[in-house]
Specification:
This protein is α/β, with parallel strands linked by helices and 320 residues long. The chain folds into two domains: 233 residues, Alpha-Beta Complex (Spore Coat Polysaccharide Biosynthesis Protein SpsA, Chain A); 69 residues. It has a seven-stranded mixed sheet with strand order 3-2-1-4-6-5-7, with helices on both faces. α1 links the parallel β1 and β2. The structure holds uridine-5'-diphosphate (UDP) and magnesium ion (MG). Uridine-5'-diphosphate (UDP) binds next to β1 and α3.
């Protein structure tokens, strides 16, 4: 029987939470008639989580799979490792600390069944410190929604369900697991949102503070660039270049005309130097765009990456 559901959980120093998490998942999925698995990724824990994971894997070999990373690589990398080992048609991501509630998984799955490719959890009633976590996160959500054009209330919520195909095509870097829905939308995924429960952390400590918001904002630049200009970087660099060159050229013409008819000095005018500088910058920018175009072509052609994604085909073999 093929695996239907893989629950991927990154684990970093969550010793006390793990047995409870396993129990809660078992309860939540007891009524699921299709095969499921939990993929726990130990992200280099140093508190004895590894031993607990070994025990869980021994007790419940039918459902528990464990991946031990060699050191602490961070939550996003741990999630990526879990996804790489997941066999399910559907992948649910969640945290190990029981702030997310496994009992919400059936809700996500039901929504997915309605024909969505990504179902995002929304911690409407979030149980975290207001000043350092909830407020920055709220601002980040507004910003991400605005920049990516994908409107979700809670990007930061790990509890989300994905059809496997939408996860297959991209790699995750930095803090980027929160941008998966935005990526998914860019390859044509249908996205829905479901309100989920959120509990305060009972055991262990949160691994994050305010600095994460900064990283998220920086990642947002990358994501925006990749989403909008990955296929055609020349549109960004070239556009910028033209925006510099056209007004500066007009200015230059005006200065030359002024020199000829009104005898106003040209070479000593700061405007002349400014216009030359902007024209040079503009050409530089266009050249950079051309180099970026070469890189993009290398990327797509060397790896045989198509520039499109297919939802389904009729009377044709399913492509890989
Ligand atoms: N985590 C991880 N590697 C890290 C930091 C965190 O795998 O370097 C895991 C952690 O064990 C938890 C999830 O990522 O399962 C979210 O972490 P945390 O609860 O600290 O984040 P918060 O809920 O405070 O945003
Ligand atoms: Mg947490």
């Amino acid at each position: 029987m093929t695996v239907f559901l893989s629950v991927v959980v990154p684990v970093y120093n969550e010793r006390e939470n793990l047995p409870l998490l396993h129990q809660a998942l078992q309860q939540a999925l007891a009524s699921c008639r299709r095969r499921w698995e939990i993929i726990l990724v130990d992200d280099g824990s140093s508190d004895g989580s590894a031993e607990v994971l070994e025990q869980l894997a021994a007790d419940d070999p039918a459902h528990v799979r464990v991946v031990f990373l060699r050191r602490n690589f961070g939550q996003t990398a741990a999630i990526a490792a879990g996804i790489d080992h997941a066999q399910g048609e559907v992948v649910v991501l969640m945290d190990a600390d029981l702030q997310n509630d496994p009992a919400d998984i059936p809700l996500l799955l039901a929504k997915l069944e309605e024909g969505y490719d990504v179902v995002s959890g929304w911690r409407k009633n979030r149980q975290d410190p207001l000043l350092t976590r909830v407020l920055p996160s709220h601002l980040a959500n507004v910003l991400i929604s605005w920049v990516t054009g994908v409107h979700l209330h809670d990007y930061g919520c790990t509890l989300k369900a994905y059809r496997r195909e939408v996860l297959r095509d991209f790699r995750l870097y930095g803090e980027m697991h929160r941008f998966i829905p935005a990526y998914a939308a860019s390859v044509g995924a249908r996205i829905a949102e479901v309100v989920v429960r959120h509990h305060p952390r009972k055991f262990g400590r949160s691994k994050y503070g305010l600095t994460r918001t900064l990283k998220v904002v920086l990642d947002l630049f990358t994501v925006k660039f990749l989403l909008s200009f990955f296929y055609k970087p020349i549109y960004l660099f070239g556009g910028l270049g033209l925006m510099l060159i056209i007004p500066s050229s007009l200015l230059l013409v005006f200065l030359i005309v002024r020199r000829i008819f009104w005898q106003v000095a040209l070479f000593t005018s700061p405007l002349f130097q400014l216009s030359l500088m902007f024209i040079i910058l503009g050409f530089q920018s266009i050249l950079m765009g051309l180099i970026a175009e070469l890189l993009v072509r290398t990327y797509h052609e060397a790896q045989g990456k198509p520039t499109y994604t297919v939802r389904r085909v009729l009377n044709l073999p399913e492509g890989e």
